[in-house]
Amino acid sequence: MRLYRTADYDDMSRKAANIISAQVIIKPDCVLGLATGSTPLGTYRQLIDWYKKGDLDFSEVKSANLDEYRGLPRDNDQSYYYFMYNNLFKHININLDNTNVPNGMEPDSEKECLRYEKVIADLGGVDLQLLGLGRNGHIGFNEPADSFGTITHCVDLTESTIEANKRFFASADDVPRQAYTMGIQTIMKARKILLAVSGEDKAEALYNTLYGPVTPQVPGSILQLHTDVVVVADEAALSRIPR
Ligand code: F6R
């Protein structure tokens, strides 16, 4: 595992974007695993900037997102498809047909989860998976549990995640209670993982993820067992980890 200490959110974003752009340059038809949330916004802005300057070409890139709320249509402004379209896809030359997000509107969860796993398998697997970290140590929507979830599945969101995500909705009651998410096994199959973490409120989760026991109570801790993980975190997120 390689750890990059960055000064702040902007520095973290630039470093994470650097790693993603290196992947795209080295393998123009790579498969990027993408995340939503506050963490990758600066990274996406940086990638868009480099694309606009002519330094990056996404025309052959394919993508698969980690997760999607169950029950939200793509055009709902809180859906993760909407997020991806507005914060990245529409600003770059990625072919939308090559972008994949679980279909939150498929009511048959088993069918959708199997379909999504097959989509990823048909793409040949993920080359670089970008992850954020939940305050409770979740990755994707794999919440603390008694065992590590396996492949793409439907989850009940925990109160702490609903609480953390309510800032994007009118109220906590409006936050969907379920989501489709890549499972731990799906994530661990990515050839390379980039974990981006910013802010003091993630310090404990990051400490437990990197240095605590590998336990499904801290889903991110499984990353200790992956052979190619890069962590890019700012000083605030690393405040519990001495230099
Ligand atoms: C997003 C996702 C989540 C977030 C995590 C951190 O697709 O899967 O695991 O990465 O909740 O969210 P932020 O970045 O908003 O703090």
Detailed description of the structure:
The chain is α/β, with parallel strands linked by helices. 30% of the residues lie in helices and 17% in strands. The chain is built from 7 helices and 10 strands. The chain has helices at residues 9-26, 41-52, 80-87, 109-122, 159-165, 184-188, 203-211, and strands spanning 2-6, 31-34, 62-65, 67-69, 99-100, 128-131, 153-156, 178-181, 192-197, 229-234. The strands form 2 sheets. It has a 7-stranded parallel β-sheet, with helices on both faces. Strands 4-8-7 form a 3-stranded antiparallel β-sheet, covered by helices on one side. Strand 9 (192-197), helix 7 (203-211) and strand 10 (229-234) form a beta-alpha-beta unit. Helix 1 (9-26) crosses helix 2 (41-52). It is globular. The site of fructose -6-phosphate has 14 residues, from loops. The site of fructose -6-phosphate (F6R) has 14 residues, from loops.
